[in-house]
Amino acid sequence: MSNEIILTEVALRDGSHAISHQYTVEQVRSIVQSLNDAMIPYIEVSHGDGLGGSSLQYGLSKVDEMKLIEAAVSVSNFSKIAVLLIPGIGTIEDLKEAKKLGAKMARVATHVTEADISKQHIETAKELGMEAVGFLMMSHMAPVETLVEQAKLMENYGADIVYVVDSAGALLPHEVKERIRALRQTLEVDIGFHGHNNLSVAMGNTLAAIEEGATRIDGSVRCLGAGAGNTQTEVLVAVLDKMGISTGVDLYKLMDMAEEIVAPILPKPQEINRDSLTLGYAGVYSSFLLHANRAAKRFSVDSRDILIELGRQKIVGGQEDMIIDVAAGLANK
Ligand SMILES: CC[C@H](O)CC(=O)C(=O)O
Ligand SMILES: [Mn+2]
User: Fold this and answer.
1) Do 180 and 310 have their domain in common?
2) Is 89 in the pocket of ligand 1 (CB under 6 A)?
3) Tens digits of per-residue pLDDT, 286-318?
4) Closest atom of ligand 1 relative to the 226 alpha carbon
5) In the annotation, is 121 catalytic?
6) Does residue 250 lie within any of the structural domains?
7) Nearest Cα to 289, choosing from 299, 298, 276?
8) Which of 55, 63, 67, 130 is deepest in the core (most CB within 10 A)?
């Protein structure tokens, strides 16, 4: 276990899901300024679904993310600005524009079995002089051997760091341990972990990842993120400090900004409710929720049964049409 952890704050990207992508330039400026003062090493700024995500399908941003990135860069002289890119949603042109505006890290995200689509984007990030991260989403959906294979691909493409991403908040601590341990034994590059709190184990999972050698960790102030949100950064900094693990972050400043700057902009506190708990329990991505709720109404079935069946059938993003099939099937039973 390392005694130094490098944190990436994701409230301005994953947290964008929680406020329906409505960040303003002023909010981004004050959040980044205060995270920078608290010495957070990396701050991710993008639409919740990454560069290019603003659309009717994923939710329209209030402000063009490039303006938000520009604002973030303009007030950070310590923190580096990172962007998320999902190949197919974001493009190489988006990445180049973000780099021109001052983004220093590209986090290239794919479904856990589709690392091969990250090649061009990771290679471009490196050519542009950015740090490149491979971000393996829905990591609970693949056996450990597959995860290792896919991570190895990202490493071979030039990723400096590969992340295990528990998108649905479905992993339990022993499962996180297995995954991080296997990656640690196989990869040369740093390993990261990104947790979600749908089963209330984001903090436990994060500590399990650190115990097995993950050194790059994501957190979100006030947990702001998709589903039940992410590992809470200010709590994580306090916990790691008690464990003798250094993050270099000023805890009081981080607590103050969470309380005084982030909390007031939240429509409601991030919580584990029936919906987010079901997402974690079923192991499905949070974007299915809205569709499942609609289908539940249409076919008079319980949306939890739909989500659990989708998880059982290992339905992934892009297969949303299956939600209707599953709901119709349940109604006919
Ligand atoms: C749709 C992108 C997604 O929110 C990335 C992420 O943070 C995750 O999979 O957890
Ligand atoms: Mn996430």
Assistant:
1) no
2) no
3) 889 989 999 999 999 999 999 999 999 999 888
4) 4
5) no
6) yes
7) 276
8) 130
Ligand located closest to 167 CA: 1
327: CB partners within 8 A, 6+ apart: 292, 295, 296, 298, 299, 301, 306
**Residue 291: domain span:** 287-332
Cα–Cα dist 122/131, whole Å: 9
The fraction of the chain above a pLDDT of 90, given in percent, is 95
What's the CATH code of the domain at 296?
1.10.8.60
The annotation status of 37 as a binding-site residue, yes or no, is no
Q: pLDDT tens digit string along 148-202?
A: 999 999 999 999 999 999 999 999 999 999 999 999 999 999 999 999 999 999 9
Reported as a single tens digit per residue, the pLDDT across 133-163 is 999 999 999 999 999 999 999 999 999 999 9
Domain count, the chain: 2
Question: Is 245 in the same domain as 296?
Answer: no
Tokens of 239: 């916990």
* ipTM > 0.85 (yes/no): yes
For 70, residues 6+ apart whose C-beta sits below 8 A from its C-beta are: 101, 102
Q: Is 164 in the pocket of ligand 1 (CB under 6 A)?
A: no
Q: Are residues 173 and 251 in the same domain?
A: yes
CA 102 to ligand 2 centroid distance, Å: 23
Tokens of 48: 């919740």
CA distance 16 to 262: 12
Residue of 61, 138, 167 best suited for mutating to test ligand 1, as the one with most atoms within 8 Å of CB: 167
Task: Give percent of the chain with pLDDT exceeding 70.
Answer: 100
Residue 282 lies in a domain: no
Looking at the fold, whether 140 and 170 belong to one and the same domain comes out as yes
Specify the residue with its C-alpha closest to ligand 1, atom 10: 167
Do 237 and 297 sit in the same domain of this protein? no
Quote the CA–CA distance of 66 and 76 in Å, as a whole number.
15
The DSSP output letter for 106 is: E
